């Protein structure tokens, strides 16, 4: 059973998280910054461990961006 994507604010001090992310990118080249983001996404996705929650997160993250959310597909389709 899939847990629903939680989008409510869950951090006691969200500014600390923002600062941590900014610091992680400090002095990186643009390519290394993109690589850091990709690695962080994959590590956190593995931690979540639920494909449906990750699918919902991807759709939510794409809202309002050019191209909109990706089409929904079930895990059994190829």
Could you explain how this protein is built, in words?
With 78 residues, the chain is mostly helical. The chain has a domain of 37 residues. The chain has 3 helices and no strands. The longest helix has 19 residues. The chain is globular and about 40 Å long. It starts with 13 loop residues before the first helix and ends in a 16-residue tail after the last helix. The model has no long low-confidence stretch (mean pLDDT 89).
Q: How confident overall, as mean pLDDT?
A: 89
Largest sheet: none
Order of helices and strands: HHH
What percent of the residues sit in helical stretches (DSSP H or I)? 55-70%
**What does the overall shape look like?**
globular
The low-confidence runs, each spanning 5 or more residues with pLDDT under 50, are none
H/I helix tally = 3
Please tell me how large the radius of gyration is: 15 Å
Number of strands: 0
- Through-space gap between termini: 22 Å
- Which class best fits the helix and strand makeup? mainly alpha
Strand content: under 5%
Short description:
The chain has 78 residues and is mostly helical. It contains three helices and no strands.
């Amino acid at each position: 059973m899939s847990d629903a994507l939680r989008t409510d604010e869950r951090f006691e001090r969200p500014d600390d998280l923002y600062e941590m992310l900014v610091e992680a990118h400090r002095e990186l080249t643009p390519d290394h910054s993109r690589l850091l983001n990709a690695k962080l996404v994959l590590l956190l996705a593995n931690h979540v461990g639920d494909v449906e929650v990750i699918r919902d997160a991807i759709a939510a993250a794409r809202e309002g961006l050019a191209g909109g959310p990706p089409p929904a597909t079930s895990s059994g389709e190829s």
